Amino acid sequence: MHESAKVFLALHLGRWDLSVDATVLLNFAAAFLLIVLLWLITRRLTFAPRSFGQNLLETAVEFMEKQILAPAGLDKAWLPLCLSAFLYILFTGLPLGMLGLLGPQAGLGSAVSNINGTAALAVLFFVLSLFVRFKKHGLWGFCKSLLPQGVKGPVVILLLPVEIISQLFKPFSLAIRLFANMSGGHLLLISILSFTSIFNNIAVWLASYGGAIVIIFFEFFVCCIQAYVFTFLGASMISEAIGEAT
Amino acid sequence: MFKLEINIVFWTLISFGLVCWVVSAKIYPILAKMMQERADKITGELAAAEKQRREAETLRAELAEQQKNIELTEHRILSEAREKARVQAAGQFEALQEEFRALRKAKEEDLRRLEDDFYRNFEERVGKMLYTACEKVLRVSLTPEMQQRILQERFEELKKLKEF
Fold it and tell me: Which SUPFAM superfamilies does the record cross-reference, listed alphabetically (chain A) (predicted)?
């Protein structure tokens, strides 16, 4: 479906195609919506929270602190990044659900239902963790921190490639997990809705659209879970990079 | 099949970076400051409440101590007052008994004197009555000759006395 995404603005930078298609537009719409909502909430912040938005945002912040940063062992300095990742995935994933009935047929899809989008986020976290590891431990410490503690001698030669591969697979697993979970529901939605074009029957239509509505709600739930899982694993990756002093 | 779409990678990073910047620079500091202020206020109020609770506990303990002291003092004062009253009552009773004895003695003296007076008066009156009665008897029974003789005898006695 992404191959058929409509291009709204053709942009080329040398060999790189930076065109703005429906997926990119949906991403920007989600990011814009998120920023506007956050701006509206913070504009009317009160000392004693009264608005639903403020309560929700403060709950999200506390959730980040207690359910992601604390278990991962990160301090509050990483909260904005984790909160951004969580909200960004949530907001780019939720439009998929909201436009679910229209999206699959119109070729719409967000960054989190596209492997390129999830890979970009996963690689960003991976690069950040490498940077943090390098900054924290230095070049020698960086190399040493890749190995488990206490490993010496010829075992190092055996374990080093394995550990490097394991580190490299982390962003892959992050990207594929998010993509597969988000696009799984999406494909299921397409499959169910495709029955309407095969069987021209009112009962099939009702069943298809009823099932699609159920799946959309399920996708909301999956989106929340995946936003949490991605942020938590990303935070764990950074925490591991910070904490692995050898 | 995986197809690398640079535009999605690029714009995803740009949009995420934008969100990240807005959250880091504009949203989170304000929110965190407010939440921290609220947490500080709550912590402060809890600490103040705890302090006040401790003060109240101390005051209650002091009050209980004072009440205990007051009760002890009250008990002591009452005991002293009772003892003093008992001693005073005993003293007063003794004094009153003494006074009563003196008064009784005086009254007994008075009574004795009155009795004596009464008997003396009684004797006098009885004597007078007897005398009068005797006089009456004598007046009735004495004849003029006997009266004359008696007078004569008295005159004789007076003469003898005059001579003596």
Answer: F1F0 ATP synthase subunit A
